[in-house]
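RECORD TYPE: inverse folding
INPUT: C-alpha cells
STRUCTURE:
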C-alpha cells in the first residue's frame, strides 16, 4: 500500500536538478539556471564578489591588482549575452536589447553606466543590411543612455551553427560613495515597488514569433533605466535594493532577493500592474505574468514609510508612469514569496522550474 508521503511524491515530484546535459530551461533565469550556476560555475569560480550574485559586480582595483569590495572609489562591472528570436520585434531589436540590458544591470546596482563593449557572433550567410540595422540601433541606444561603446570583437561561425547573430555586451560604471544597493539588504517592514506594467516584453516576443494578433498592439518595454534610477536615488537615498526582472520575470527576481536577504515577501495580486492585452494573452496561453520577462522595468525594495513618496516621484518620469507598490517584506516564511488575492487566498510563487518562453532576450 502506498502511504501519503509516497503518494505526494508520485503526483508532484521535485524537478530533477542533476541533469547531465544542458536543457533550454537552464537559460530560463529560474530554478534550473540557479542550479547550473550553483553546481558548475560557483564551485570553480566562486569568490566574495561573484558569490554575492548581484546583477553587476561592485569592486575596486587596488595598486596590487586585487579586486575588493570595500573601498571608497568603486566601479560596477557586468556582462550579458543576447540570443532573442526574432531579431526585430515591435518596440526594439536584439541590438537595442543588448545595450539596454547591460546599462540596466549597471543602473540597478546604483552605478552610473559609462562604457560598453560588444562581441558579435555572426552566422555565415547573415545579410549585411539587417546587421547594419542592428549596429545602427545599438549606436542610437548608446546615445540615448549616455554611454559609449569603446571596444568589441567579431567572430563568424559556419552556416547553420549560429542562428544569424548572437551579441555579448559588457559594461562598466562608477558608484557614488553613499550608495550600497544589494539583494542582501531587504528588511521586514520594507515595501516592494515595480516601476510599471509587467510581462510586456515576453508576450510581445511570443506573439511576434507565433503570429498572434491582439486587439491592442503590444510593444516590448525595452528601455534604458539609468535616468529613472538616478531620479529615484535622488528622491530616496535609503533604497535597499533594485533589480531589473528580465529572464524569469518578477518571480525570479523576488525569489532571489528573498533567499539572499533571508526574508519573506508577500505580494498583493490586485496591485500588480498588467496591461489588459498581456493579461488576456497570459490567460489564453496558460502563462503567469509574474514569470514573463521584462526589459524596461525594475523592482525596488525601500523602507515602508518611503514607498508612497517614491512612487509619486517615479510616476513623474516617463518610464515610471505605472509604478506601484506591489508587496511587502516580512519576517515570516523566509526565502519564500507568497501572492495574496482579493478574497484572502494565497499561493507560493516559486522559481520557474523550466522554460516558459525560450529565446526572449
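DESIGNED SEQUENCE:
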Amino acid at each position: 500500500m502506498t502511504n501519503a508521503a509516497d503518494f505526494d511524491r508520485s503526483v508532484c515530484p521535485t524537478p530533477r536538478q542533476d541533469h547531465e546535459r544542458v536543457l533550454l530551461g537552464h537559460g530560463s533565469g529560474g530554478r534550473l539556471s540557479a542550479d547550473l550556476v550553483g553546481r558548475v560555475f560557483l564551485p570553480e569560480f566562486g569568490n566574495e564578489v561573484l558569490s554575492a550574485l548581484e546583477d553587476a559586480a561592485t569592486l575596486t582595483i587596488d595598486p596590487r591588482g586585487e579586486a575588493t569590495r570595500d573601498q571608497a572609489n568603486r566601479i560596477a562591472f557586468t556582462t550579458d549575452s543576447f540570443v532573442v528570436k526574432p531579431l526585430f520585434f515591435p518596440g526594439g531589436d536584439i541590438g537595442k536589447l543588448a545595450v539596454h540590458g547591460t546599462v540596466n544591470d549597471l543602473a540597478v546596482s546604483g552605478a552610473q553606466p559609462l562604457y560598453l563593449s560588444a562581441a558579435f557572433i555572426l552566422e555565415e550567410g547573415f545579410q549585411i543590411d539587417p546587421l547594419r540595422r542592428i549596429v545602427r540601433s545599438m549606436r542610437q541606444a548608446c546615445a540615448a543612455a549616455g554611454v559609449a561603446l569603446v571596444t568589441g570583437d567579431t567572430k563568424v561561425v559556419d552556416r547553420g551553427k549560429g542562428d544569424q547573430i548572437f551579441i555579448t555586451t559588457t559594461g562598466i560604471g562608477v558608484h557614488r560613495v553613499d550608495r550600497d544597493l544589494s539583494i542582501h539588504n531587504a528588511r521586514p517592514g520594507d515595501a516592494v515597488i515595480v516601476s510599471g506594467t509587467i510581462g510586456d516584453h515576453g508576450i510581445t516576443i511570443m506573439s511576434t514569433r507565433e503570429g498572434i494578433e491582439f486587439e491592442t498592439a503590444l510593444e516590448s518595454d525595452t528601455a534604458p533605466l539609468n535616468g529613472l534610477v538616478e531620479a529615484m536615488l535622488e528622491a530616496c537615498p535609503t533604497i535597499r535594493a533594485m533589480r531589473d526582472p528580465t529572464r524569469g520575470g518578477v518571480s525570479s527576481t523576488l525569489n532571489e532577493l528573498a533567499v539572499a536577504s533571508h526574508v519573506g515577501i508577500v505580494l498583493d495580486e490586485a496591485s500588480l500592474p498588467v496591461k489588459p492585452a498581456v493579461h488576456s494573452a497570459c490567460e489564453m496561453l496558460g502563462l503567469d505574468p509574474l514569470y514573463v520577462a521584462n526589459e524596461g522595468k525594475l523592482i525596488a525594495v525601500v523602507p515602508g514609510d518611503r514607498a508612497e513618496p517614491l512612487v509619486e516621484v517615479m510616476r513623474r518620469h516617463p518610464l515610471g508612469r505605472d509604478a506601484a507598490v506591489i508587496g511587502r517584506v516580512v519576517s515570516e516564511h523566509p526565502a519564500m514569496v507568497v501572492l495574496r488575492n482579493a478574497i484572502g487566498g494565497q499561493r507560493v510563487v516559486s522559481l520557474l522550474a523550466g522554460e516558459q518562453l525560450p529565446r526572449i532576450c
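NOTES: Residues 135 and 257 are 35 Å apart (CA to CA).
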